[in-house]
Amino acid sequence: MPEMPEVQGLVDFLDGRLAGLTITRVTVANIAALKTYDPPVDSLKGAEITGASRHGKFIDLSTRAPDASPHLIFHLAKAGWLRWYDQLTATVIRPGKTPIALRVALSDGSGFDLTEAGTKKSLAVYVAREPDDVPGIARLGPDPLDPGFTRDTLAGLLAGRRTQIKGVLRDQMVIAGVGNAYSDEILHAAKTSPYALAASLTDDEIDTLFAAMTSTLTEAVAEASGKPPAELKDAKRRGMRVHGRRGEVCPVCGDTVRSVFFADNSLEYCPTCQTGGKILADRRLSRLLK
């Protein structure tokens, strides 16, 4: 799943190429991906793109048109991606026969497709008058790389939450932009168990968590910066220390990276670094034993 660093990388890439170009055509190949009807998607035709920005994991293309200035906003969800063309392909899109959900053609001949792999379709596209018209954006918590997000901001968000810190970091209504992969990386850097209760963290542990979150995300955004979309996924994988590395050696202590599996995802952690050597129970086995 693309998270804040990859989404920011896509935004930087698009902002440098789209500003000033006009949308000549928008083709919806998967109608289920389009979550809005007013303004209509046709209102984007002839609109000039004025820039690209990010809200959590949402990408926002702002436009300027004579009658309106709609925003084309999309969330890539778990298996979505953006495929860029310097010269847009002339291949005909066959709905139901392609991973393409949306195609955007631009005035200089370039363009992009929004694609989604797998059978579970979650990619979401919105045409909105304002970003906050999108419910997911309106509900977002603060961005952890915003200059106003301080150690005390984090402490305030954690106070009183009797829920596991892993879940808190992933909750977009609490902190925007962090998902499954980077929450694993942040907690590993902070030497914190994913099962630790948010409200139970001491002042020193909150200091460490804030520093780990800031450094992990800042370094990942810097790594993604300047890369074309085709290279961002591999760059993300290369940067992971524990996420997606079950059975490999922890680069900090040499212990074996372990996983806990859930219904539709998993978390990775290092027992020595994060849980005092304790192996966390595999939830799949726990279900079988009930």
| Distance from first to last alpha carbon | 31 Å
Helices, by number, come to 9
**Rg estimate, integer Å:** 20 Å
What is the makeup of the main sheet?
4 strands, antiparallel
For the residues shown, what is the average pLDDT? Answer: 94
Helical percentage: 25-40%
Strand order of the largest sheet: 1-6-7-5
User: How much β-strand is present in the residues?
Assistant: 15-25%
CATH hierarchy, class of the largest domain: Mainly Alpha
What structural class results from the helix and strand content? alpha+beta
Which oligomeric state applies?
Answer: single chain
Using the coordinates shown, work out and report the CATH topology of the largest domain: Helicase, Ruva Protein, domain 3
The domain tally reads 2
Low-confidence parts: 286-290
In the CATH classification, which architecture of the largest domain applies?
Orthogonal Bundle
Cofactor: Zn(2+)
Family: Belongs to the FPG family.
Keywords: DNA damage, DNA repair, DNA-binding, Glycosidase, Hydrolase, Lyase, Metal-binding, Multifunctional enzyme, Zinc, Zinc-finger
InterPro entries: FPG_cat, FPG_N, H2TH_FPG, Ribosomal_uS13-like_H2TH, Znf_DNA_glyclase/AP_lyase, Znf_FPG/IleRS
Any chance you could write out the topology, listing elements then pairs?
Layout: H1 4-18, E1 23-28, E2 48-55, E3 58-64, E4 71-75, E5 80-85, E6 100-106, E7 111-116, E8 124-128, H2 135-138, H3 151-158, H4 165-170, H5 180-189, H6 203-224, H7 229-239, E9 258-261, E10 266-269, H8 271-274, H9 283-289
Antiparallel strand pairs: 1-6, 2-3, 3-4, 4-8, 5-7, 6-7, 9-10
Helix pairs in contact: 1-6, 1-7, 5-6
